[in-house]
Amino acid sequence: MTQSPPDAQRWIQETESHVRAQLLGEGSGHDWWHIERVRTNALLIAREEAVDLVVVELAALLHDIADHKFHDGDDTVGPRVARAWLESIGVDEGTIAHVCDIIATLSFKGAGTSSQMRSREGMVVQDADRLDAIGAIGIARTFAYGGHANREIYNPDIPPVQHASFEEYKTNSSPTINHFHEKLLLLKDRMNTRTARRIAEGRHRFMKTFLDQFHREWNGDA
Ligand code: NI
Question: Where are the alpha helices (DSSP H) in the chain?
Answer without folding.
Answer: 8-23, 32-46, 53-62, 77-88, 93-106, 120-131, 135-148, 166-171, 176-182, 194-218
